Amino acid sequence: MKSFTKKKIHKSLLLLFGLTLLSAGCSNSSNSSGNNESASSPASDEAAAADFSYPMAGNAELTFMNEKLGGTPERLPIDDEYEKRTGIKIKQLGGTPMTDQKFSLMLASGELPDIFLNTWLQYPGGPDKAVEQGYILKLNDLMDKYAPNLKRTLEEHPEIDKMIKTDDGTYYAFPFIRSEAGRVYGGPIIRKDWLDELKLTVPETIDEWHTVLTAFKEKKKASAPVTFRTMFLGERTGGFAGAFGVMGNFYVNDGKVVYGYLEPGYKDYLKTMAQWYKEGLIDKDFASIDAATVDKKMTSNESGATIGWQFYIESYNSAVQETDKNASFVAAPYPAAAKGQTPEFGQLDNAYAGTSSAAISATTKNPEAAMRWLDYAYTPEGSLLNTFGIEGTTYTMENGKAKYTDLVVNNPEGLGSDQVMLKYSHGTNFPMIQQDNDLPAKFAQTSEAIDIWKKTNHESHLLPPITPTAEESDEMSSIMNDINALVKETELKIILGTEPVETYDKYDQQRKDMGIERALEIQQAAYERYMKR
Question: Which UniProt keywords apply (predicted)?
Fold first, then answer.
């Protein structure tokens, strides 16, 4: 079998990548257990690197669990290709979706997969605690021996390196790093053909949104002019709250960490949402509906607007145009307070948001194989595979550039390009450095959405992936568990009209009594430590 990391890479192919991912490897190729405490010098590790090449010898087998994965995982072509190239067989574990409670029970059982994804930044006590408790391995020494590609990537990109370690320098997981273009992927979506019919333009301000939704209700007879799930109220995205200069959760204002729910503008936002709900502009069922119900309402003329992810646009257009060729969903900008202003918040992730971080179990019998399998994603060949799929199947190389085949561009089964690539690549939510794949979209509106949604001031407010100490994290969890529950309860009561907006001040004081100011102190201290890394 060919040695993929030693394969000569044409210079023009390297230009394909936004990151300089050089091929390398280290240690021997045997299927050893890899004693983490074995003595070795950096020089000996580097010397051994020249002796390693993929596929790894020894027929290693590992178990892998995705975060919150439900059901029996489908074996996909990308899985077979990874096994062939790395020489490492992966058994993916499924079952019921992994709730926080089930995750805790799994840890307590001691029956852990070799590799498992989680948002370790949200682990009680933080990633340092997970290492200290003996659930996952500290990867520093293992990276020196078995992950030269990730190590080199971090050396060449210190801004990424800063994100994926704790304050004391502990590396705890292989990260999923978003590309610059991939950091924005959600926002308002609206029925453009309805706007054209009503001679209205795409709304840009909160007042224009009120006008449009009123017209959808009165003239299009939409039973739920705008629908969305509660996750879009103002926590996952700025939603409509951005027009009031606020967003839920923690963020930064001029170097100071603030909690959006305490800011004066949040009360004004809730007052407006309560009024819209009373007027019948917001889906009366929004507090309890799931994603499938939102999709149904958006494609059956019950709703004309929502807040969601980019791929919703293509999905909705495909559905509605089967019966109405003129129907069209487009992205709308995040609303501003007034015409010409830029909203403070939209949707924006850090390059490393903590999600899809692959840690290695402290109980694994083969840490070397786990490291090798994960490190493959950071080689040029692995990055090309994760981005463009399998050469000859989903793409061919022409003049040093990847060109998609008809399987992707003109799929014989009518599948969208993103649906095809889900089988043959790892575009997102996999431990890797994401590359821009320039996938052809079935609808131009899908491609245009990102440029529309990214026009906010969100970057200046983004809290980086800070890591409070284990003690601080425990204290944060103790404080915020109750406060988060109170916040969600308060929001719904005010919007649904079961309590007047004036009671918000009472809850504001209650959050302070519950310790929000101490939580802010912890966040501020962690933020300042991060900035000094």
Answer: Cell membrane, Lipoprotein, Membrane, Palmitate, Signal
